[in-house]
Design goal:
Layout lengths: L2 H10 L2 H4 L7 H8 L1 H12 L11 H14 L3 E5 L9 E7 L5 E7 L8 H4 L3 E3 L2 E3 L3 H20 L7 E7 L10 H9 L3 E4 L2 E2 L4 E6 L1 E10 L15 H11 L11 E9 L9 E10 L2 H15 L8 E8 L8 H16 L5 E5 L5 H6 L4 E2 L3 E5 L7 E3 L3 H17 L7
Helix pairs in contact: 1-11, 3-13, 4-7, 7-13, 11-13
Length: 412
């Protein structure tokens, strides 16, 4: 049997059990019962700064999460990051008596600088909960903890294992976790990602890959007042190179390229000798990355400032997560589960990269965007939609139950 067909068949067998649940069932009641505890834990985590590389308070967040999981009977180990200047990663495992080997992945790092939590602490305004990293993705991590809590309360253990990875460097492309993720996905039947749900109450079925292209220009310094003609302005050449690449799309569902970093010069009265700029490029396919590299390399030979040198450096972060039968089948199951409580679940994709792409590349079916719906990630306006907190916890818990009993086949 074709693997995609086998995957869909296995997931379809969950339908009879699904009909026994819903808002009158024990899972929904349990999810409602932990809501106050869920939001209290979220507030506690949001009010601690944990920007990527924060070695002062970032570990405090990991410690709180570890305490929560140990209290639920999980075996917790702290795994040193694979790159310097990053807090330990957390791996928690719960053994069951069933078949499915389930991997949950979340991250505790945010994009915000130390002191942000004090300036913008957790708060609730109407149907919104706000604060730095509230949705991306501390709410998702808390949902993962609470889903395991619900399984323990309901005495459900029809799974072989549930492993929860909470990593500390996702916002930089997971440099501290790549080997660990590769190790964990080898022993998993499915990966469920705790990134936030998308606007319109959608799960994420595709994601772009993320790459950084650094343009570096070497010029010649000179006194800006006495002999500027003797200099070769690296900044001027860099501007030219950026203009040459400006035709790449800035937004949309396809490839995008945006200037995110730029630096030039050392003093105001010296013609800049060095200049660099970084383009953040989001890719629907790996081939698009090669195409961008070829374009920038060709541009580098087209210089307007003589005697300057232009070089291009490419650093890939996450690969793309393309649309695929494995994710589609999981999304179909998620839609059925959401329908149990009278809600409609959408499907979407975005330019934000995640660990699900690494799971997919290893042949593990993956679905993303299972946390509460989040708006305005990476900005001061970030918030989660509170009406999605309990339904999303219900969805995650039921996915664990159904996939624990009926794990999907690997993609390859």
């Amino acid at each position: 049997m074709h693997r995609a067909l086998l995957l869909a068949t296995l997931l379809a067998t969950a339908a009879p059990a699904i009909a026994q649940s819903g808002k009158a069932g024990p899972v929904w009641r349990a999810a409602e019962g932990v809501r106050a505890e869920q939001l209290a834990l979220l507030e506690r985590l949001v009010n601690i700064d944990s920007g990527t590389g924060n070695m002062e308070t970032g570990p405090q967040v990991q410690t709180i999460i570890a305490e929560q999981l140990k209290a639920l009977g999980m075996e917790v180990r702290m795994v040193p990051a694979e790159a310097p200047g990053l807090p330990d990663n957390l791996v928690a495992t719960l053994k069951g008596r069933g078949k499915g080997r389930l991997l949950l992945i979340g991250h505790s790092d945010t994009v915000f600088e130390p002191g942000t939590a004090a300036k913008r602490p957790f708060r609730i305004e109407g149907d919104r909960a706000m604060g730095p990293g509230v949705g991306d993705e501390k709410a998702g991590v808390v949902s993962g903890i609470m889903a395991i809590k619900l399984l323990r309360q309901l005495k459900f253990d029809d799974f072989a294992s549930i492993t929860l990875l909470v990593e500390t460097s996702e916002e930089r492309g997971s440099p501290g976790t790549r080997k660990l993720i590769a190790e964990l996905v080898k022993d998993a039947d499915v990966e469920l990602n705790l990134e936030p749900g998308q606007a319109g109450d959608q799960v994420t079925i595709w994601r772009k890959g993320s790459s950084a292209f650094e343009i570096t220009v070497k010029g010649r310094p000179a006194h800006a007042g006495v002999a500027p003609q003797e200099g070769r302005n690296a900044a001027s050449e860099l501007i030219h190179q950026i203009e040459l690449a400006d035709g790449l799309p800035k937004s949309g569902d396809g490839l995008t390229s945006n200037l995110t970093l730029m630096k030039a010069g050392s003093r105001y009265n010296i013609i800049p000798e060095d200049a660099t700029a970084t383009l953040n490029v989001r890719l629907r396919t790996k081939a698009q990355g090669d195409e961008v590299m070829a374009l920038l390399t060709k541009n580098a030979a087209n210089r307007v400032i003589p005697d300057t040198a232009v070089s291009i450096h490419r650093e890939d972060s996450f690969p793309p997560l393309p649309t695929n039968p494995g994710t589609d089948a999981l999304a179909g199951l998620a839609e059925k589960i959401y329908g149990e409580v009278g809600l409609k679940l959408g499907r979407g994709g975005n330019g934000g990269a995640s660990e699900s792409a690494l799971a997919y590349e290893a042949g593990v079916p993956a679905i993303d965007g299972l946390g509460p719906v989040n708006i305005g990630a990476h900005s001061e306006r970030e918030y989660i939609e509170l009406p999605t907190v309990t339904p999303r916890l219900y969805l995650l818990t039921r996915l664990l139950m159904e996939l624990g009993k009926n794990p999907p086949a690997r993609l390859r």
